[in-house]
Amino acid sequence: MSDLPFTLDQLRILKAIAQEGSFKRAADSLYVSQPAVSLQVQNLERQLDVPLFDRGGRRAQLTEAGHLLLSYGDKILSLCQETCRAIEDLQNLQGGTLIVGASQTTGTYLLPKMIGLFRQKYPEVTVQLHVHSTRRTAWSVSNGQVDLAIIGGEIPTELGESLKTVPYAEDELALILPTSHPFAKLETIQKEDLYKLQFIALDSQSTIRKVIDQVLARCDIDTRRFKFEMELNSIEAIKNAVQSGLGAAFVSTSAIAKELQMGVLHRTPIEGVVVKRILWLIFNPNRYRSKAAEAFSQEILPQFANPGWTQDMLKMSQMNPVINSTLDVATSSSSDAS
């Protein structure tokens, strides 16, 4: 066809309506009036000669044609953003954007340090950090909305063909107690002692909670016997609850460095058990890689990686298989565990 029956603005409006669920909220998110949004949708439907929305319900529902256009529209808009970033790169890191993704723990405690170092060297580059679930982060990397990400959970199976996954670092999960707890006076505790504790944990559907349950099960520790005092929605809330004497918890060692230094939490080793998981670097090798992303990969990533990790790992010719397990279980003597 000589003329396209839609514009980029119309695709952006369609995507906003699908995300927000209503014409009004979509208009608010785009900073335009609702009549302007409605008019653009009417024009789009007239140009395509198909209805894009079912208008019978309270929520804007896409028709089959609407879903099809949205699917292709996402790809078109993503390529447009990629094009703009490639043009920005012509300025040779005197501008441009770096977008990094992370799951909750890495996004809260690891990535800010990495981004801080990068910003010191390249202050003109705009850096965005997107912290979401592992699944949502993996999809964002796959569709080009995020340059690269560091995650601790399993990526969706259906993304195994499009993403490259590289083992990046180990994250140890520690048992923490209030400093006033009787167990805090012991050098180590036994597995059976865990069943005497009151636990504070993240929601049972969270990635870290599942990791802890699985790795402890491999150590013959049955988390179903744990007494859960409460479930909270953030690691910071859990640390504060433990500090206040409300119970024990398993958290990443990267999340408690400050509290251990200040002496407000006690890390309690479990005899014969070290709980670790692997953090993974993920990226889409088929997407354009900006100069900012290259600089971050070459200059910042190696500083926080496992010993022996090199930039060559990013250039492997074959795709890694889908991650089936993010867990490592290490057993040691009590002296090693402490």
Give structural attributes:
12 helices; single chain; 338 residues; 12 strands; two-stranded antiparallel sheet
Polypeptide structure, described:
The protein has helices at 8-20, 23-30, 34-48, 64-88, 104-121, 134-142, 207-218, 235-243, 257-262, 291-299, 301-304, 334-337; strands at residues 53-54, 61-62, 97-102, 126-131, 148-151, 164-177, 198-202, 227-232, 249-252, 266-267, 274-283, 327-330. The protein starts with 7 loop residues before the first helix and ends with a helix. It has twelve helices and twelve strands. It is 39% helix and 19% strand.
Global Rg: 24 Å
Class by helix and strand content?
Answer: alpha/beta
**Overall 3D geometry?**
globular
N/C terminus separation: 70 Å
What is the H/E order? HHHEEHEHEHEEEHEHEHEEHHEH
Query: Roughly what is the average pLDDT, rounded to an integer?
Result: 85
Got a strand count? 12
Number of helices: 12
Q: Largest sheet, if any? A: 8 strands, mixed
In helices, the fraction of residues equals: 25-40%
Strand content: 15-25%
Low-confidence stretches: 316-338
